[in-house]
Specification:
By secondary structure, the chain is of the alpha/beta class. 26% of the residues lie in helices and 30% in strands. The relative contact order is 0.15. The protein contains seven helices and ten strands. The strands form two sheets. A seven-stranded mixed β-sheet has the order 3-2-1-7-8-10-9. The chain has a three-stranded mixed β-sheet with strand order 4-6-5.
Length: 192
């Protein structure tokens, strides 16, 4: 069974699609925004995947989730553990007027607890906190085949590093398969 990990599943739009492509996957998804999590439950995603309602970062504890919103609309696609910075200029329609406290843990601790030590694919889209998630996944990454994550060269969120900083941290074991304007796909040369 392919082991697929999705960190920041939003409302499960891509989850359903990916489930349709994989043959009986072990699928683990994380979504800390309570508004998105409710939508995932309404879609009965918890019947198809292991679904967790907490945030991932470099260390366990509590975190403040900056909730995104849009005038007259339920916009929950930009919430982050990091405070918005240049995001406010690039997307002025997106507001961050509210916060909520969330449980935070690491990918290492969750996946080790589940006995998933070598995922086939990890996809991380957590609005500027991708590097922190990777720092909390050092053991799991050793056995991970593919890694896909969002990045920005602008400091969209406070303290968000540039792509080169992340690649330097990951080290030479990772080969770039495809680089998109704000996403990158890497292959672990030590596994494949």
């Amino acid at each position: 069974s392919p082991k697929f990990i999705e960190v920041g599943i939003h409302q499960g739009e891509h989850t359903e699609e990916i489930l349709g492509l994989l043959n009986k996957p072990i699928y683990v998804g994380f979504e800390p925004d309570p508004r998105n999590y409710i939508v995932c439950l309404e879609k009965k995603l918890q019947d198809k995947i292991l679904l967790f309602n907490f945030a991932l970062s470099s260390a366990p504890g509590k975190g403040t989730l900056h909730l995104s919103s849009r005038e007259g609309e339920n916009w929950c696609g930009s919430s982050s553990l990091k405070a918005p910075k240049e995001h406010l200029q690039h997307f002025p329609w997106c507001k961050f007027d509210e916060t909520t406290e969330v449980v935070v843990t690491t990918l290492d601790s969750v996946l080790t607890g589940l006995g998933i030590l070598a995922p086939d694919f990890i996809w991380i889209d957590v609005q500027g906190n991708e590097f922190e998630v990777l720092k909390g996944a050092t053991n799991i990454l050793k056995g991970t085949k593919y890694l896909y994550f969002e990045y920005y060269e602008n400091e969209m969120y406070e303290g968000q590093p540039k792509l080169n900083d992340i690649l330097e941290y990951l080290g030479y074991g990772w080969k770039i398969i495809e680089q998109y304007p704000n996403d990158i796909l890497l292959e672990n040369k030590n596994v494949n």
